[in-house]
Amino acid sequence: MSDLTTIGDADNWLCWLCDQPVDPDASVNSDLGPSVDTYASTKVKRGAPAIERLAHRGCNTMKGKNPPVVKWLPSLFVIDPSPIVEAVERLRTKGGREIVARCPDEFDAGHASDWLLDRLSRLAPDLALTTQISPGGGQYVLALTVK
Question: Which residues contact 45 (CB under 8 A, 6 or more apart)?
Fold first, then answer.
């Protein structure tokens, strides 16, 4: 296992699960304290090394009971958003393109796209992803694509 400070610095002291700041000086026994999470993606199951990420102790503990959930930003106007972690894992194993949300207008779709790409740069830094925005049925579809 790597050093907590090294992993914290690499993740800019943001929890990879909730995307909220982690206090490097907080007690490791506190729910908001820092911890190292060994993220077991499908890549790990094929023999690649585990990905070590920074997480709040509470977020890391809950991930042990439930599959990890990365929530969409509440201020985004998205309809039928896909679970982010599952979508990334499917794209990691199968490649291609996956629709992840619908938005009422192009501005909202662009805002959601910018946020999602920024979030995914921290969630899956090893995976090159891009977004596509397509009009259809009076809405705009947001899709993720492996580059």
Answer: none
